[in-house]
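Worked example

This section walks through a single chain of length 492. The input is the sequence exactly as stored; nothing has been trimmed or padded.
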Amino acid sequence: MIKRFLSLEWKSFFRSASFGKSLGIKIFMGFLSLYLIAMFLILGIGLFPALQEFFPESDPLLIVNSFLFYWILGDLVIRFFFQKLPVMSVMPLLVLPIKRSKIVNYVLGKSVFSFFNALPLFAIIPFGVTLIVKDYPVSQVIGWMAALIVVVLIINFLNFIVESFSAEKELSFLPILVLAGGLYGLNHFNVVSFSEIIGNGFNAIYNQSVFIVVPILILLACYVLNFKLLKQKLFLDSGLKTKIKEVNTSNLDWTKNFGDIAPFLQLDLKLIWRNKRTKSTVWMVVFGLLYGLVFYVNPQFISMTPSYIFVGVFSTGIFLMNFGQFVPAWDSSYYGLLMTQNLKYEQYLKSKFTLMALSVLILFVLGIPYVYFGWKVLFAHFAAAIYNMGVNTHVILLGGSFNRKKINLNEKAVFNYQGTGAVQWLIGIPILLLPMGIFAVVYFLTGFEIACLVLIILGIVGIVFHQKIMKLITKKYTDSKYKMIDAFNQDN
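Given that input, the structure is written out below as tokens.
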């Protein structure tokens, strides 16, 4: 059965409509993985001599054990944001004579072979070998290493438990931050010395390997709890259950002033406010608006005039970038239905354009107080805003025609890379680097004012030729319509 599951996932990977884009991302992640592996290898090899050099009177093993609490805590937090439970498209399997327990065991078993579980081994094994070379008892070192591996697996399953209980919450990252912060605080202020407890525990395992039974029992408990939680959700109708809650309606009559695109604007605004994933674009607006404070309060950056455009494009275009890069994937769950309606594709795209252009205008107005740092800053932000409205809105809409990845709007937003493909990685080049490059070249050849005027002119040209540009973009979307419908119907 496991062989059959692996075969299905292999076919799903290669037959996916986003195979080419996913492959590119996986190659990039592969290089990143090799880099991390190299770093952990260096850590594992160099840790013992480094500890001997800095703490010549202490046993390196005891020092490592005393810091294991911080490693466990940090690993748990990092996994929460980056590690996801390996899933497979189980819904079709639920109508077949396959026991749910087998499916759950396969999914949980697959998580054991996660990169997050393998990475610590590149530090644990070299350090353990170094201990053996330094005449530490072989059997005791092996027992200690085995205990660490068990703890790695405990963290793996504990992460899924935390995710399971926090996934339904609006700010799903708060429970893990509160938990980690609370444990760290208790340890830091010596209310409960977790670092000492865990350190003594591993010292005991090193001295008496029989104590490894304790972490093994904890591992089994975590596995069983994960099994029960996952099995409870493994029903065909589990996704049909809805929460009963009070609905707060908003008055969107003002959108009627935009004419025939009003229904699409209303749909987008409701989509943004009612879903976890899209709400993140709203919170990111606050971050983008205040982003300039990172640069402008620093005298070193305030003297770097070309950086003004980067900050201007980013702060006035933060919503444009976060929302626009996933057009039309935001509507992927009902995209097929949307395309069967009697609507004009150009109206659909025009509503997206209008929403992004309005966001640029609003963010520029809200960012006017940046004039405190000088009129050049405000002028650069104005030029960036015009460029965003005239150029970047069209660029990001054009990039959306290459989107082939579905987005689940109910998934938590924090560190959620669902729907992210090669397009989302590459779109940053024309969006951020191109205006900065144009500005820098003109700035060094002529001056600040001319460089800003060039960006303003480019933006105005984009606004003037908006209708013609939109027709070209609409044609691109129309040509890709059926490919996108097919891709959005897949779980990729």
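What to look for: Confidence is low (pLDDT under 50) at residues 239-245.
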